[in-house]
């Protein structure tokens, strides 16, 4: 897992920004009371979670996403005093967790108040109990023994269904008058995700045993849902995610996957368009030279779309790559 930078804003600056911005006394279920106009505020670490919060909350909530730039890399984001003030005003706060948006726990600690907090990593059930535990120096361990996990939970479609349900519960606890609406919205969102899961499974089933390569673990859960085989050397994807150069032997092994004479050729390269390096550029060039389709994925929403539209477009892009006309 990539090491994340410390929060950019100092505690002192955050404290100044928070003066007069507290979320007030806790409401039902531990959530802060609604704003004076009766509108709840949901604060999300990225616009991915902000979009899901909007889908569940509808017109009766205001959603603030700290990272909404389609070109931003959330791994390296540094928070600001303005972010601290935004978190302090939230009734419900949603963040990825798992070390991905590491600035959020500190913002929450500085904010005070008692908003309802949703840590998607904890909600997902995908984080091993021993994740991050220390081990004896020099002792070899596999990723599984380390408790390693993929922290890009928004590509886990069942986890997003669980998030929608939790949002409905927390919003309903703070705003009982609209609880039924939140529940209905979450159910509609979940039904759409059911359809997306079926479509993703069908895409993979069209090429049984289909092999793909990835430049980072970002789309891992989607690859699993499709039943595809990730042929990428783990050391390659991990190094790219950690902002380090993979060993030359690992790069050579990865490039060899695109050998056009292979008896089991790759069906697609899935590339994180928000983290491109000279090394991933080499891999993309190898894919182009071999005629292997490239599917671009991202970590935040492109402008002018929502979560369901974005994820659907990525699944359809994968479908087109696996089954070109």
From TrEMBL:
GO terms for biological process: metal ion transport. Its main location: other. InterPro entries: Bact_metal-bind_prot9, ZnuA-like. It comes from Pseudonocardia broussonetiae. It is found in: Cell envelope. This is Zinc ABC transporter solute-binding protein. PANTHER family: HIGH-AFFINITY ZINC UPTAKE SYSTEM PROTEIN ZNUA-RELATED, METAL-BINDING PROTEIN HI_0362-RELATED. GO terms for cellular component: cell envelope. Residues 1-25 form the signal peptide. It holds the Pfam family ZnuA. GO terms for molecular function: metal ion binding. SUPFAM superfamilies: Helical backbone' metal receptor. Keywords: Metal-binding, Signal, Transport.
């Amino acid at each position: 897992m990539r090491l994340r930078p410390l929060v950019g804003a100092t505690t002192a600056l955050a404290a100044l920004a928070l003066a007069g911005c507290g979320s007030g006394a806790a409401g039902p279920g531990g959530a802060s009371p609604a704003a004076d106009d009766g509108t709840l505020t949901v604060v999300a670490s990225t616009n991915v979670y902000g979009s899901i919060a909007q889908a569940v909350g509808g017109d009766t909530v205001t959603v603030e996403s700290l990272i909404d730039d389609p070109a931003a890399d959330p791994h390296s984001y540094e928070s600001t005093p303005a972010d601290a003030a935004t978190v302090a005003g939230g009734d419900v706060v949603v963040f990825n967790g798992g070390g991905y948006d590491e600035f959020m726990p500190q913002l929450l600690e500085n904010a005070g108040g008692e908003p309802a907090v949703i840590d998607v990593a904890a909600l997902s059930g995908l984080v091993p109990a021993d994740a991050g535990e220390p081990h004896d120096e020099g002792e070899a361990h596999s990723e599984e023994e380390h408790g390693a996990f993929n922290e890009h939970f928004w590509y886990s479609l069942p986890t997003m269904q669980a998030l929608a349900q939790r949002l409905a519960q927390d919003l309903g606890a703070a705003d009982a008058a609209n609880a039924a609406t939140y529940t209905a919205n979450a159910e509609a969102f979940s039904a759409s995700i059911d359809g997306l899961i079926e479509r993703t499974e069908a895409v993979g089933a069209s090429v049984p045993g289909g092999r793909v390569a990835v430049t980072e673990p970002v789309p891992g859960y989607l690859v699993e849902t499709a039943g595809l085989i990730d042929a990428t050397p783990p050391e390659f994807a991990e190094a790219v995610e950690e902002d380090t150069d993979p060993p030359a032997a690992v790069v050579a092994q990865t490039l060899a996957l695109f050998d056009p004479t292979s008896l089991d050729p790759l069906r697609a390269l899935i590339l994180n368009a928000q983290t491109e390096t000279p090394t991933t550029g080499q891999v993309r060039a190898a894919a182009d030279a071999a005629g292997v389709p490239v599917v671009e994925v991202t970590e935040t929403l492109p402008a002018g779309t929502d979560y369901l539209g974005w994820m659907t477009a990525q699944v359809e892009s994968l479908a087109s790559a696996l089954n070109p006309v």
